Amino acid sequence: MVTVLVILVVAVWCCSLVFGRTFYPPSDVWRVITGEQVSGASFTVGRLRLPRATLGLICGFSFGLGGVVFQTMLRNPLASPDIIGISSGASAAAVFSIVSLSLGGAAVSALAIVAALAVVIFVPVLLSQSRDLSTTQLGDDTAAALGVRVSRTRLVIVVAAVGLIAFATAAAGPVAFVAFLSGPVAGRLAGPGTSLLIPAALVGALLVLVADFCGQFAFDTRYPVGVVTGVLGAPYLIYLIIRTNRAGGSL
Question: Which alpha helices (DSSP H) does the chain contain, by range?
Fold first, then answer.
Protein backbone atom coordinates (compact mmCIF):
# COMPACT_ATOMS: atom_id res chain seq x y z
CA MET A 1 0.00 0.00 0.00
CA VAL A 2 2.85 2.39 0.80
CA THR A 3 4.33 1.72 -2.64
CA VAL A 4 1.01 2.52 -4.33
CA LEU A 5 0.68 5.74 -2.36
CA VAL A 6 4.23 6.78 -3.25
CA ILE A 7 3.52 6.18 -6.94
CA LEU A 8 0.30 8.22 -6.74
CA VAL A 9 2.01 11.11 -4.93
CA VAL A 10 4.86 11.22 -7.46
CA ALA A 11 2.40 10.98 -10.36
CA VAL A 12 0.23 13.85 -9.10
CA TRP A 13 3.34 15.94 -8.34
CA CYS A 14 4.57 15.41 -11.90
CA CYS A 15 1.14 16.24 -13.34
CA SER A 16 1.18 19.49 -11.36
CA LEU A 17 4.33 20.48 -13.25
CA VAL A 18 3.11 19.43 -16.69
CA PHE A 19 -0.54 20.49 -16.72
CA GLY A 20 -2.14 23.86 -16.07
CA ARG A 21 -3.36 26.80 -18.10
CA THR A 22 -0.45 25.96 -20.39
CA PHE A 23 0.74 22.42 -21.12
CA TYR A 24 4.47 21.74 -21.08
CA PRO A 25 5.76 18.36 -22.28
CA PRO A 26 7.62 16.25 -19.73
CA SER A 27 10.85 16.73 -21.67
CA ASP A 28 10.67 20.51 -21.18
CA VAL A 29 9.81 20.09 -17.51
CA TRP A 30 12.78 17.79 -17.03
CA ARG A 31 15.08 20.29 -18.74
CA VAL A 32 13.88 23.01 -16.38
CA ILE A 33 14.41 20.79 -13.32
CA THR A 34 17.97 19.99 -14.46
CA GLY A 35 18.75 23.70 -14.79
CA GLU A 36 18.32 24.40 -18.51
CA GLN A 37 16.65 27.53 -19.79
CA VAL A 38 13.44 26.76 -21.68
CA SER A 39 11.41 29.60 -23.13
CA GLY A 40 8.22 30.05 -21.11
CA ALA A 41 8.68 26.88 -19.08
CA SER A 42 11.61 28.21 -17.06
CA PHE A 43 9.38 30.81 -15.44
CA THR A 44 6.06 28.95 -15.31
CA VAL A 45 7.47 25.62 -14.20
CA GLY A 46 10.67 26.68 -12.45
CA ARG A 47 9.34 29.73 -10.60
CA LEU A 48 5.65 28.92 -10.14
CA ARG A 49 4.67 25.26 -10.46
CA LEU A 50 7.74 23.51 -9.06
CA PRO A 51 7.97 25.45 -5.76
CA ARG A 52 4.18 25.30 -5.26
CA ALA A 53 3.93 21.57 -5.92
CA THR A 54 6.97 20.76 -3.78
CA LEU A 55 5.72 22.90 -0.91
CA GLY A 56 2.29 21.26 -1.18
CA LEU A 57 3.87 17.81 -1.02
CA ILE A 58 5.98 18.64 2.05
CA CYS A 59 3.16 20.41 3.87
CA GLY A 60 0.67 17.65 3.12
CA PHE A 61 3.17 15.08 4.36
CA SER A 62 3.63 17.09 7.55
CA PHE A 63 -0.10 17.60 8.14
CA GLY A 64 -0.84 13.91 7.57
CA LEU A 65 1.95 12.69 9.84
CA GLY A 66 1.21 15.20 12.60
CA GLY A 67 -2.51 14.49 12.47
CA VAL A 68 -2.28 10.72 12.75
CA VAL A 69 0.18 11.05 15.64
CA PHE A 70 -2.34 13.03 17.69
CA GLN A 71 -5.20 10.70 16.76
CA THR A 72 -3.17 7.62 17.68
CA MET A 73 -1.73 9.01 20.89
CA LEU A 74 -5.07 10.30 22.20
CA ARG A 75 -7.06 7.37 20.72
CA ASN A 76 -9.58 9.84 19.34
CA PRO A 77 -10.29 10.44 15.61
CA LEU A 78 -11.35 14.00 16.43
CA ALA A 79 -7.98 14.84 18.00
CA SER A 80 -6.37 16.34 14.93
CA PRO A 81 -4.38 19.60 15.03
CA ASP A 82 -6.96 21.65 13.13
CA ILE A 83 -9.76 20.47 15.42
CA ILE A 84 -8.00 21.03 18.76
CA GLY A 85 -6.55 24.39 17.72
CA ILE A 86 -2.84 23.84 17.03
CA SER A 87 -3.08 24.96 13.41
CA SER A 88 -5.04 28.05 14.41
CA GLY A 89 -2.47 28.89 17.07
CA ALA A 90 0.37 28.60 14.55
CA SER A 91 -1.53 30.82 12.11
CA ALA A 92 -2.16 33.44 14.79
CA ALA A 93 1.52 33.47 15.72
CA ALA A 94 2.55 33.89 12.08
CA VAL A 95 0.13 36.76 11.53
CA PHE A 96 1.26 38.42 14.77
CA SER A 97 4.91 38.14 13.68
CA ILE A 98 4.22 39.74 10.31
CA VAL A 99 1.74 42.43 11.37
CA SER A 100 2.89 43.39 14.86
CA LEU A 101 6.60 42.61 14.71
CA SER A 102 6.95 43.65 11.05
CA LEU A 103 9.08 40.65 10.23
CA GLY A 104 10.04 40.35 6.60
CA GLY A 105 12.91 39.96 4.18
CA ALA A 106 15.90 38.30 5.79
CA ALA A 107 14.01 37.42 8.98
CA VAL A 108 11.32 35.56 7.05
CA SER A 109 13.96 33.73 5.00
CA ALA A 110 15.80 32.71 8.17
CA LEU A 111 12.58 31.43 9.71
CA ALA A 112 11.85 29.47 6.54
CA ILE A 113 15.25 27.80 6.69
CA VAL A 114 14.80 26.93 10.36
CA ALA A 115 11.33 25.55 9.63
CA ALA A 116 12.65 23.37 6.83
CA LEU A 117 15.23 21.96 9.33
CA ALA A 118 11.83 21.44 11.77
CA VAL A 119 10.93 18.87 9.05
CA VAL A 120 14.37 17.14 8.64
CA ILE A 121 14.62 16.55 12.39
CA PHE A 122 11.03 15.92 13.45
CA VAL A 123 10.04 13.34 10.80
CA PRO A 124 12.81 10.88 11.78
CA VAL A 125 12.01 11.48 15.45
CA LEU A 126 8.36 10.57 14.95
CA LEU A 127 9.19 7.52 12.84
CA SER A 128 11.64 6.31 15.48
CA GLN A 129 8.84 6.49 18.07
CA SER A 130 6.36 4.54 15.93
CA ARG A 131 6.53 1.30 17.92
CA ASP A 132 6.27 3.02 21.30
CA LEU A 133 3.38 5.14 20.03
CA SER A 134 1.48 2.02 18.99
CA THR A 135 2.19 0.39 22.35
CA THR A 136 0.73 3.35 24.27
CA GLN A 137 -2.66 2.54 22.73
CA LEU A 138 -2.78 -0.47 25.04
CA GLY A 139 -2.92 1.84 28.05
CA ASP A 140 -0.27 3.50 30.20
CA ASP A 141 0.17 0.60 32.63
CA THR A 142 0.50 -2.00 29.90
CA ALA A 143 2.87 0.17 27.87
CA ALA A 144 5.05 0.78 30.94
CA ALA A 145 5.09 -2.95 31.70
CA LEU A 146 6.33 -3.55 28.14
CA GLY A 147 9.24 -1.19 28.69
CA VAL A 148 7.87 2.05 27.20
CA ARG A 149 8.77 5.25 29.05
CA VAL A 150 5.30 6.66 28.62
CA SER A 151 5.81 10.26 29.82
CA ARG A 152 9.03 10.70 27.85
CA THR A 153 7.53 9.14 24.73
CA ARG A 154 4.51 11.42 24.84
CA LEU A 155 6.62 14.52 25.37
CA VAL A 156 8.89 13.70 22.42
CA ILE A 157 5.93 12.87 20.18
CA VAL A 158 3.96 16.00 21.08
CA VAL A 159 6.93 18.32 20.53
CA ALA A 160 7.80 16.73 17.18
CA ALA A 161 4.19 16.66 15.95
CA VAL A 162 3.53 20.27 16.96
CA GLY A 163 6.75 21.29 15.21
CA LEU A 164 5.65 19.63 11.97
CA ILE A 165 2.19 21.19 12.09
CA ALA A 166 3.65 24.60 12.90
CA PHE A 167 5.98 24.42 9.89
CA ALA A 168 3.23 23.32 7.53
CA THR A 169 0.85 26.00 8.80
CA ALA A 170 3.47 28.73 8.59
CA ALA A 171 4.32 27.72 5.02
CA ALA A 172 0.87 27.02 3.57
CA GLY A 173 -1.65 28.36 6.07
CA PRO A 174 -4.17 26.29 8.05
CA VAL A 175 -5.18 23.90 5.26
CA ALA A 176 -8.47 22.55 6.56
CA PHE A 177 -9.05 18.90 7.44
CA VAL A 178 -5.90 17.40 5.87
CA ALA A 179 -4.53 16.35 9.25
CA PHE A 180 -8.03 15.25 10.20
CA LEU A 181 -8.69 13.08 7.13
CA SER A 182 -5.30 11.51 6.47
CA GLY A 183 -5.29 9.06 9.37
CA PRO A 184 -8.78 7.58 8.82
CA VAL A 185 -8.22 7.29 5.06
CA ALA A 186 -4.85 5.61 5.61
CA GLY A 187 -6.46 3.27 8.15
CA ARG A 188 -9.06 2.17 5.61
CA LEU A 189 -6.37 1.55 3.00
CA ALA A 190 -3.76 -0.13 5.19
CA GLY A 191 -6.07 -2.20 7.38
CA PRO A 192 -5.77 -3.06 11.09
CA GLY A 193 -2.48 -3.84 12.78
CA THR A 194 -0.40 -1.60 10.50
CA SER A 195 1.53 1.51 11.52
CA LEU A 196 -0.25 4.46 9.94
CA LEU A 197 2.51 7.06 10.18
CA ILE A 198 3.93 6.74 6.66
CA PRO A 199 0.58 5.90 4.96
CA ALA A 200 -1.12 8.88 6.62
CA ALA A 201 1.74 11.20 5.66
CA LEU A 202 1.49 10.07 2.03
CA VAL A 203 -2.30 10.42 2.05
CA GLY A 204 -1.85 13.96 3.39
CA ALA A 205 0.59 14.81 0.60
CA LEU A 206 -1.79 13.33 -1.98
CA LEU A 207 -4.78 15.25 -0.60
CA VAL A 208 -2.97 18.59 -0.70
CA LEU A 209 -1.56 18.05 -4.21
CA VAL A 210 -4.91 16.97 -5.67
CA ALA A 211 -6.86 19.68 -3.85
CA ASP A 212 -4.42 22.38 -4.93
CA PHE A 213 -4.53 21.28 -8.57
CA CYS A 214 -8.34 21.12 -8.54
CA GLY A 215 -8.58 24.49 -6.82
CA GLN A 216 -6.42 26.09 -9.50
CA PHE A 217 -7.72 24.49 -12.67
CA ALA A 218 -10.92 22.46 -12.15
CA PHE A 219 -13.26 25.44 -11.82
CA ASP A 220 -13.88 28.75 -13.52
CA THR A 221 -12.67 30.52 -10.37
CA ARG A 222 -9.47 29.66 -8.55
CA TYR A 223 -9.96 28.50 -4.97
CA PRO A 224 -7.40 28.13 -2.17
CA VAL A 225 -6.45 24.56 -1.37
CA GLY A 226 -8.10 24.89 2.05
CA VAL A 227 -11.50 25.50 0.46
CA VAL A 228 -11.29 22.25 -1.51
CA THR A 229 -10.08 20.19 1.46
CA GLY A 230 -12.79 21.80 3.59
CA VAL A 231 -15.46 20.57 1.19
CA LEU A 232 -14.04 17.06 1.56
CA GLY A 233 -13.48 17.16 5.30
CA ALA A 234 -16.63 18.83 6.59
CA PRO A 235 -18.99 15.93 5.71
CA TYR A 236 -16.65 13.45 7.40
CA LEU A 237 -16.55 15.60 10.55
CA ILE A 238 -20.36 15.69 10.62
CA TYR A 239 -20.44 11.91 10.16
CA LEU A 240 -18.07 11.41 13.11
CA ILE A 241 -20.11 13.70 15.35
CA ILE A 242 -23.34 11.88 14.47
CA ARG A 243 -21.69 8.52 15.11
CA THR A 244 -20.37 9.76 18.44
CA ASN A 245 -23.82 10.92 19.53
CA ARG A 246 -25.42 7.62 18.55
CA ALA A 247 -22.75 5.71 20.46
CA GLY A 248 -23.35 7.78 23.58
CA GLY A 249 -20.10 9.71 23.37
CA SER A 250 -17.84 6.78 22.49
CA LEU A 251 -15.82 6.98 19.28
Answer: 2-18, 26-33, 41-43, 50-74, 81-84, 86-99, 106-128, 130-136, 140-145, 150-172, 178-190, 197-217, 225-246
